[in-house]
Amino acid sequence: MKNLKIVSYKTAIIPSKMIAVFICSLLIGAFGLAGLNAKAAQNNIGSDPKEENSFRYKDGERIEDEMLIEEDGLSIRYKPKKANANAWKLVDGQYLSSNGKPIPGAIAKGVDVSYHNGTIDWEKVKADGIDFAIIRCGYGMDQTDQDDKQWVNNAKKCSELGIPFGVYLYSYANTSEKALSEAEHVLRLVKGYKLSMPIYYDLEDTIVEKAGTAQILENTKIFTQKLESAGYTVGIYANLYWFNTFLTDAYYDKYEKWVAQYNTTCNYTKPYYIWQSTSEGTVSGIGSKSVDLNFMLNTAPVSAKITGIRQTENGNEVTFIPGIGATSYDLYRMNSANVSTYIASKGINEKKEFLDTTVKSLSGYRYYIVTKRDFKSQKGSVKTDAIKPLAKTSISVAYNTYNSLKITWKKISGANGYKLYRKSGTTYKLIKTLSGETNCSYIDTKLTCGKTYNYIVRAYQTLGGVKILGNASIKGKDATPKPPKPEKLTLKNSGHYIKVKWSKVKGCHGYLIYRRTGTKGSFTRIKTISKSTTLSFTDKTVKKKKTYYYKVRGYRTVSGKKVYGAYSKAYKLKAK
To answer: Are the CB atoms for 285 and 128 separated by under 8 Å?
Structure first.
């Protein structure tokens, strides 16, 4: 294996194994191989070995600890000198690695198991904080003696306890015929079980490696396409070295990846969804010395693609190709005014088509599908068409007229436009869609004077004619429509009096005049004018040679109560 060096290892091979092998050879000699490999012999495709050999196994035994494998300086298996006390645990809402640091994006913790783990008490496993399981159903070709001895028990218990689980098959395939038989092996075993996660093709054995990258790719295509045609979602399992060395073709990128690297972090640079972080985990209910621990990452799925829309007698039939890493889909219909209507939610194991019976015409309608990854109902799990949501923007609201407000927000780079929402009861309703990155203001009209309104804004990107929303503005902003301040305020001496004049303010039912003497102190209301057409007031209470300051504001009566506007600018004049 190029660039691969085993530095040291210590295995836990059971001495009694030699006895078991000897007895097994006697039985085979007595009864022959017909019962064990009948199907393989019938198809003339050879038989599978009975012992796994890979980075995890040596002659069929689990490698228990202290095995270091280096690949160009990046270790696949690494045992730290001293693990943190909280290694692989959930602390303050974050999963921690063996060095005590948070695992970026980790949202769930799981185990993968086989008969090597013995009989498992799944109730204790669930109570110990395990969120999901990946169960080995078997190894190699479709032979009953190659079914995992604990498959039925493990799958049955997880189903009964509601533990989400997926499946993996350990591959020995070095020919196309064997790969097809391995797919048939899985299909026979998973029939009747509801899988919450993909079926993973486990590529790690030295026999598979010796087949070469071209044959491995061909085998993978046969295996994945066979299972997909039966309606299942498929993933690929391998260690970091395998993914970087043998599984580099773009075909592998179509599938959800489960990467093994026993280290403090995973160094794989392409998208992956599950990290197998250690083979030395301890979980209550699993009596073996150690167990593989895995962490599911909240990574954006690759979007599903609509492949066709066909009009039928009963409605519009929409078909699509499923996305990678998806757990469900939401289907939407858009009319000619770009108004979206939610149609349905589709599960990953269902038939990839939907009949929209609410309309019977293709004219004026478009459809789009939202790909979702939702495990343990974690927040922020919905991703749309693999577009990263745009950042939040800050928002401000100010009164504009007695029945309108002006909303402004900061530009978001890369936005194709913005959607503005106004709060109605406990929810926000869309009031305006604005196109363009710099179109960052809007005047909301026909509002009720004196009523408080709350707004948020979301930037969006456009993909294939569909608007993909970003995050909402950091916090909704309140504002209240009220009469604006009077303009063009003038003061004039009229004999021994002072006359105050102002321009008319739209929407006002009256005005209030305020006065102050001197440069300090507060203003006192001296007059209330109840006619909107009266735009002046003569102050006859002034004293000669004394300076007075004046300002005016309007009001509007709403439901019997006065809603006051803003004050005008203050002006001064000395009485004659």
So the answer is: yes
